[in-house]
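Message: Study each token:
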Amino acid sequence: MAEQPHEHAPTPTPQQLAAQRRELTPDATAAFLAFSGKVFAAGALDAKAKQIIAVAVAHVTQCQQCIRSHTKSALRAGATPQELMEAAWVAAEMRAGGAYAHSNVMLAAVHEEQSPSGSAEPRA
């Protein structure tokens, strides 16, 4: 007997997935949403500045959903495309800068390995 092709259920929408998350963990979901609301409320920084920061951080964490949602929130808060692009460049520099700064860890390990007091012979 020929095997029937396996039918897959349709992929849930983001709204359906969010509803499932709320159903599975209502208390944690509510707590996270309350926390998020407090974090993004105007304070020493206004909502626009906070959303621009969120766009930059989302680039570093590489969260596509965060980039999309915080970009839209930033625009609604009055950010310009130029401000958002500059924030993305700041994020890129910070990510590259982290790798650059961490080269000190590598260089320290090279010095430890090649030092006369080290237990291993220097390597080429």
Remarks:
- Residues 61 and 67 are 9 Å apart (CA to CA).
- The mean pLDDT is 91.
- DSSP finds five helices and no strands in the chain.
